[in-house]
Design a protein that fits this description.
The structure holds 2 protein chains of 2 kinds.
Chain A lengths: L4 E3 L2 E4 L5 E6 L6 E7 L6 E7 L2 E4 L8 E4 L6 E5 L8 E8 L10 E2 L3 E5 L1
Parallel strand pairs in A: 2-11
Antiparallel strand pairs in A: 1-3, 3-8, 4-5, 4-9, 5-6, 7-8, 9-10, 9-11
Chain B lengths: L2 E3 L4 E5 L4 E3 L2 E3 L4 E8 L5 E7 L5 E3 L5 E5 L4 E6 L8 E9 L7 E2 L3 E6 L1
Parallel strand pairs in B: 2-12
Antiparallel strand pairs in B: 1-4, 3-9, 5-6, 5-10, 7-8, 8-9, 10-11, 10-12
Classes of the chains: A mainly beta, B mainly beta.
Chain lengths: 116, 114
């Protein structure tokens, strides 16, 4: 069964350092999402891509966070500089998008970030 | 803006008993509703969805959910709980049109005792 891949699974970094996360969605999925899940809470959207275009980044802290999906396939989320409050699970999800979309999103295993 | 409420932080049930995990939502227009399950240090796994049609939807692992438009609820149910059902459950909503990203509730921890 096809899965969303994410790496690394765990990342420990010091505050003010840069950190990057990678996501490879299910093949053929046009829509890619990055969510942040703080411990004890539900995931919250950071950014949504349709192919290579950003369609929603209203909740992305753009002073320190950036995201790209250059060829409309895999994606990278970067934080620079990291702050203590960025400690969370970063989840990537994908869906078909388009007229064949079945609406459910498929999630990767996540990257657990700890900022010290 | 849409929102989801899961009023119970934790639900405890004995193995073999029926379980219910509650969810209410707020969204403009018709909703698309979802349930996901999360095991420790894992991503979310899709359980079931309501898009349109029959108000009772069946999903993975014997779970089902009932959409109630008048009460804006989408409670998750299972007739007979298993110890292996113990996990964190999230309800999510998105509107029929517009923003496709999901808005999640805060989650309910289900503990099934042997």
């Amino acid at each position: 069964e096809a899965e969303v891949a994410q790496s690394p699974r765990y990342k420990i970094t010091e505050k003010s350092q840069a950190v990057a996360f990678w996501c490879d969605p299910i093949s053929g999925h046009a829509t890619l999402y990055w969510y942040r899940q703080i411990l004890g809470q539900g995931p919250e959207l950071l950014v949504q891509f349709q192919d290579e275009s950003v369609v929603d980044d209203s909740q992305l802290p753009k002073d320190r966070f950036s995201a790209e999906r250059l060829k409309g396939v895999d994606s990278t989320l970067k934080i620079q500089p990291a702050e203590l409050g960025d400690s969370a699970m970063y989840l990537c999800a994908s869906s078909l998008g388009g007229p064949q979309d079945s609406y459910e999103q498929y999630f990767g295993p996540g990257t657990r970030l700890t900022v010290t | 803006a849409q929102s989801v409420a899961q009023p119970e932080d934790q639900v405890n049930v004995a193995e073999g008993n029926p379980l219910t995990v509650k969810c209410t939502y707020s969204v403009s227009g018709n909703p698309y509703l979802f349930w996901y399950v999360q095991y420790p240090n894992r991503g979310l796994q899709f359980l079931l969805k309501y898009i349109t049609g029959d108000n009772l939807v069946k999903g993975s692992y014997g779970f089902e959910a009932e959409f109630n438009k008048s009460q804006t609820s989408f409670h998750l149910k299972k007739p007979s709980a298993l110890v292996s059902d113990s996990a964190l459950y999230f309800c999510a909503v998105r509107p029929y049109t517009g923003r496709r990203a999901l808005t999640f509730g805060s989650g309910t921890r289900l503990q099934v005792q042997p």
